[in-house]
């Protein structure tokens, strides 16, 4: 019977033998193992597992789903009225089926090649327009990781943009508790002084500050006018950051209209399930003049070679891989898939539909408040949108009875206060059940909405109005662009989503050989459980008794990840690789400070490292010292020793990527890590390239003290067009206590019995827990042996490509035995010198051949970094190799004069269908040369919707919202 690993790994045993022959390896017994012994240094090489693994034998797909059903059965889907930024929402089925469950959307990558990403870029423009309109600010980015991290980024933006020298940032007492905790973590590392004020109660601001943060509405539910506070902050020279509920903003005044400089928040309640904390798309919007301070990604409008409008990422110099220690943020991704869902929720409902949902929510809250007051309860706020705080002497008992008797989750604020939040899923029966807990009259409906036989009493009448203050009523229009008005029927919505998907290139079309990004198979069985209600409809702060299945699955996954990496403890809280990096560095910082070594602030980072490494070190309060690399791409040991000697007692950490960013296994890695340890430093091993190591070596064994792992790379979580990702942090025992904690976590203990007490790095205790079933399924179905086989297959495919293309494009770096790891860097600089054809030309010409280009000019300008992964079969790999060889021949034809340097298929690539049929064909090459360079494309051709995009034009003419329909005429 075929195993899951056989279906995940694209190359068959027969194909692998052919590939190994190309490499000159013919070991009859274990040829793949022979290749791995050539590539991986003997000092760190691990032989096959001897059977004592904590990872059980590989399960079949049916068995894995059955075990997930078991976890799901141990979760209880109660009615959540907890709030705090997480609410029940109804995902339109047309969006769930055609976006969330559609590989055309979830297997795409970040739109670095915009010509083949027009669909998701348009969806993100819709997202940015939606956020900008609702917040009343000029520009929004393409999403953030969650609300709390967005607030932290807003704080950092305020510090950069403020002209004051103050280190004081004022935090509203009405902020969500998880946000306060995260701000404390981020501020402490950067020397920012947080000052809490009850702003709604009129407490005054300090004389000096660089910013103020307001929650709007407050965690208590209070809706109040913060404009005076915002004005006072401006007088003091600071900026105002407002966290606003987007649904409430359909009814109440926008932050922009109140004078805010920055608005942040979450779009979760726009059709994205709570999923035990994520993934969800946070948002950030800024007033005019702050656009270039925005962290994260920004989608803009430019023009293509024909002058037609086209979307692309704007201001890409802000990408953190490029800016390194000068980065404004370490975030280099977004939550694209979830942002698409939220934007389509707005497209589906339109402004009138959103307003109707908001009015319904506000009316339910007002109704409940009226019933409470009729029962004699004290509702603390007169003005509110969806949340009430109610005084009760027996508050804890009420919360317990709500859960045990009615299946309703309320929030215990303190021993005399209960918080209740309603949402679009709240029923009259829910309202009645809650009112009854406070002594109100029961109705004809029980807590589950089932009419009681023989009971003729009627439900209390619903309130006619909401409880929003008249002076804060929103009067301006929003979502006026036609896209939010024309897709009203499901037919229209389905066709719109299909049309956008057809403009994109994702893994469902072909290989995406992006180096460093690991675009491997995201199997359907791995994806199946994420939409089950028992995983999707759980509040992140639900009581421990409701989430036993989640916690058991999390424990297992933490344990498995600890084993395969050689560490002792794992935290799944970081919801992106950037947050995992930061969490690991903060753990190192906490460890040194606990030992009294507060002077250890220097972080050594090789020049070849991921750009996010330097940015993360700065955000952790460390000083970056760059270590040189030699001509082979390895860390220069002499320079490392010199830097260690120069900084002696200041060394906090070394950050190193293994295998290196250059795609090779450094032979001296143990010597490198030993030198840092001898100097009293800790070693951070970046886990981005774990796909080349799993089963053959472990970070902990080669000297690592802490690492982040990219579950969206090595462990099969889809990239979703540029997010979601999960970046858990794993550490040795001595650092375990400093891993992330959370004030609202269901429990303190983690796998292995470790208790974490480090700072909060994500809004939810387990980060993007809703997609952890994907990685759990991957490990469970692969087993230890399958994981090892996947590594070998990935390394074999990369070496095969390097061998076949080496004579056409020099392979820039190899290890001592001439082998690469799971990716190889093809040097196109000689091609440019001899033919004039650039790396851009090659990347765009690959689109005509039906491929997504490899990673361009990273880590070396003028190169392509190719990573085939283990999931591609030999036919697809050979198709890519042959395309690259033909492109090299085309470049030679340009050099030989067959085609002019300014008019050939490469410099004019990519070619759209319109460009081939419109008008006279006056090029030096034929239409067939342009469109069908290989005959197989006749039946499988992918047509890009736009020609080559002018990047510079888009930066000079910054447009980051939906352009008018006339622009496309």
TrEMBL record:
What family does this belong to? Answer: Belongs to the GcvP family.
Q: What is this protein called?
A: Glycine dehydrogenase (decarboxylating)
Annotated positions of the N6-(pyridoxal phosphate)lysine modification: 713
Q: What is the recorded function of this protein according to its Swiss-Prot or TrEMBL entry?
A: The glycine cleavage system catalyzes the degradation of glycine. The P protein binds the alpha-amino group of glycine through its pyridoxal phosphate cofactor; CO(2) is released and the remaining methylamine moiety is then transferred to the lipoamide cofactor of the H protein.
Q: Which NCBIfam families match?
A: gcvP, PRK04366.1
What is its quaternary makeup? The glycine cleavage system is composed of four proteins: P, T, L and H.
Q: Which CDD domains does the record associate with it?
A: GDC-P
Q: Which InterPro entries match?
A: GcvP (IPR003437), GDC-P_C (IPR049316), GDC-P_N (IPR049315), GDC_P (IPR020581), PyrdxlP-dep_Trfase (IPR015424), PyrdxlP-dep_Trfase_major (IPR015421), PyrdxlP-dep_Trfase_small (IPR015422)
Q: Which reaction does it catalyse?
A: N(6)-[(R)-lipoyl]-L-lysyl-[glycine-cleavage complex H protein] + glycine + H(+) = N(6)-[(R)-S(8)-aminomethyldihydrolipoyl]-L-lysyl-[glycine-cleavage complex H protein] + CO2
Q: Which residues form the Glycine cleavage system P-protein N-terminal domain?
A: 6-438, 468-741
Known cofactor(s):
pyridoxal 5'-phosphate
Is the Oxidoreductase keyword given for this protein?
yes
Q: Which keywords are on file for this protein?
A: Oxidoreductase, Pyridoxal phosphate
Q: Which GO terms describe its biological process?
A: glycine decarboxylation via glycine cleavage system
Q: What is the lineage of its organism?
A: Bacteria, Bacillati, Actinomycetota, Actinomycetes, Micrococcales
Which GO terms of the molecular function aspect are on file? glycine binding; glycine dehydrogenase (decarboxylating) activity; pyridoxal phosphate binding
The cross-references to Pfam families, in alphabetical order and at most eight, read: GcvP2_C, GDC-P
């Amino acid at each position: 019977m075929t195993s899951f690993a056989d279906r995940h790994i694209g190359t068959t045993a027969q194909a692998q033998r052919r590939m190994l022959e190309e490499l000159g390896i013919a070991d009859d017994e274990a040829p793949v193992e022979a290749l791995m012994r050539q590539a991986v240094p003997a000092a760190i090489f691990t032989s096959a597992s001897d059977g004592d693994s904590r990872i059980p034998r590989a399960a079949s797909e049916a068995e894995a789903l059955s075990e997930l059903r078991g976890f799901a059965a141990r979760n209880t889907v109660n009615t959540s009225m907890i709030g705090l930024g997480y609410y029940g929402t109804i995902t339109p089925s047309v969006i769930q089926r055609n976006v969330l469950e559609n590989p055309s959307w979830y297997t795409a990558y970040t739109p670095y090649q915009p010509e083949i990403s027009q669909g998701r870029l348009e969806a993100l423009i819709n997202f940015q327009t939606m956020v900008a309109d609702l917040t009343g600010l000029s520009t929004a980015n393409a999403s953030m990781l969650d609300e709390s991290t967005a607030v932290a980024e807003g704080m950092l933006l305020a510090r950069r943009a403020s002209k004051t020298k103050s280190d004081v940032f004022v935090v509203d007492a009405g902020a969500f508790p998880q946000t306060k905790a995260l701000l404390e973590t981020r501020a402490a590392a950067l020397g920012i002084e947080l000052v809490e004020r009850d702003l709604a109660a009129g407490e005054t601001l300090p004389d000096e500050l660089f910013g103020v943060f307001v929650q709007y509405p407050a965690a208590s539910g209070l809706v109040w006018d913060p404009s005076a506070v915002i004005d006072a902050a401006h007088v003091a020279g600071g900026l105002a950051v407002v966290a606003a509920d987007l649904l409430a903003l359909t009814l109440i005044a926008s932050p922009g209209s109140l004078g805010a400089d920055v608005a942040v928040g979450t779009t979760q309640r726009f059709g994205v399930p709570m999923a035990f904390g994520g993934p969800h798309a946070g948002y950030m919007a800024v007033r005019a003049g702050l656009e270039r301070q925005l962290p994260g990604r920004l989608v803009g409008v430019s023009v293509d070679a024909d002058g037609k409008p086209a979307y692309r990422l704007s201001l890409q110099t802000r990408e953190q891989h490029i800016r390194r220690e000068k980065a404004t943020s370490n975030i280099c991704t977004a939550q694209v898939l979830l942002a698409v869902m939220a934007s389509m929720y707005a497209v589906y409902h339109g402004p009138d539909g959103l307003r109707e949902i908001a009015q319904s929510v506000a009316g339910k809250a007002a109704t409940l408040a009226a019933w409470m007051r009729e029962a004699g309860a004290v509702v603390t706020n007169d003005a509110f949108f969806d949340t009430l705080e109610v005084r009760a002497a027996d508050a804890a008992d009420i919360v317990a009875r709500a859960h045990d008797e009615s299946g309703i989750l309320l929030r215990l604020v303190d021993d005399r206060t209960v918080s209740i939040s309603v949402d679009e899923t709240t029923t009259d029966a829910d309202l009645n059940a809650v009112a009854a807990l406070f002594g109100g009259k029961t109705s004809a409906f029980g807590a589950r909405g089932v009419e009681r036989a023989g009971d003729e009493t009627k439900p209390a009448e619903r309130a006619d109005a909401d409880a929003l203050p008249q002076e804060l009523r929103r009067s301006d229009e929003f979502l006026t662009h036609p896209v939010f008005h024309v897709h009203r029927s499901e037919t229209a919505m389905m066709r719109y989503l299909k049309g956008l998907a057809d403009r994109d290139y994702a893994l469902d079309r072909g290989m995406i050989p992006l180096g460093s990004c690991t675009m491997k198979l995201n199997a359907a069985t791995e994806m199946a459980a994420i939409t089950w209600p028992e995983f999707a409809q759980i509040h992140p702060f639900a009581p421990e008794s409701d989430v036993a299945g989640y916690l058991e699955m999390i424990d297992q996954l933490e344990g498995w990840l600890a084993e395969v990496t050689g560490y002792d403890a794992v935290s799944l809280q970081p919801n992106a690789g950037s947050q995992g990096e930061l969490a690991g560095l903060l753990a190192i910082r906490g460890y040194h400070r606990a030992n009294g070594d507060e002077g250890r602030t220097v972080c050594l980072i090789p020049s070849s490292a991921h750009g996010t490494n330097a940015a993360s070190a700065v955000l952790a309060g460390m000083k970056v010292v760059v270590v040189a690399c030699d001509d082979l791409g390895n860390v220069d040991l002499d320079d490392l020793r010199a830097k260690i000697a120069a900084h002696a007692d200041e060394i906090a950490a070394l950050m190193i990527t293994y295998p290196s960013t250059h795609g090779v296994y450094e032979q001296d890695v143990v010597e490198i890590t030993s030198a840092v340890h001898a100097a009293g430093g800790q070693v951070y091993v970046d886990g981005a390239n774990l796909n080349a190591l799993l089963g053959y070596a472990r970070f902990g064994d080669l000297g690592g003290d802490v690492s982040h792992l990219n579950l969206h790379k090595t462990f099969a979580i889809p990239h979703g067009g540029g997010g979601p990702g999960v970046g858990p942090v794993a550490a040795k025992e001595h650092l375990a206590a400093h891993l992330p904690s959370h004030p609202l976590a269901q429990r303190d203990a983690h796998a292995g019995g470790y208790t974490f007490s480090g700072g909060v790095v994500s809004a939810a205790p387990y980060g993007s827990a809703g997609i952890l079933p994907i990685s759990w399924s991957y490990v469970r179905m692969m087993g230890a042996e399958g994981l090892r086989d996947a590594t070998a297959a990935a390394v074999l495919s990369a070496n095969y490509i390097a061998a076949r293309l080496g004579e056409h494009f020099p392979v820039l770096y190899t290890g001592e035995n001439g082998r690469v790891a799971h990716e190889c860097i093809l040097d196109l600089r000689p091609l440019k010198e001899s033919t004039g054809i650039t790396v851009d030309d090659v990347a765009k010409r690959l689109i005509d051949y039906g491929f997504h280009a490899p990673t361009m000019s990273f880590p070396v300008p003028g190169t392509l970094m190719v990573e085939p992964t283990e999931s591609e079969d030999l036919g697809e790999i050979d198709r890519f190799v042959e395309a690259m060889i033909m492109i090299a021949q085309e470049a030679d034809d340009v050099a030989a004069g067959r085609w002019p340097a300014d008019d050939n298929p490469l410099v004019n690539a990519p070619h759209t269908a319109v460009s081939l049929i419109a008008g006279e064909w006056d090029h030096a090459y034929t239409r067939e040369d342009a469109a069908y360079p290989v005959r197989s494309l006749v039946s499988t051709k992918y047509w890009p919707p736009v020609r080559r995009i002018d990047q510079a034009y888009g930066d000079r003419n910054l447009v980051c919202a939906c352009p008018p329909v006339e622009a496309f005429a």
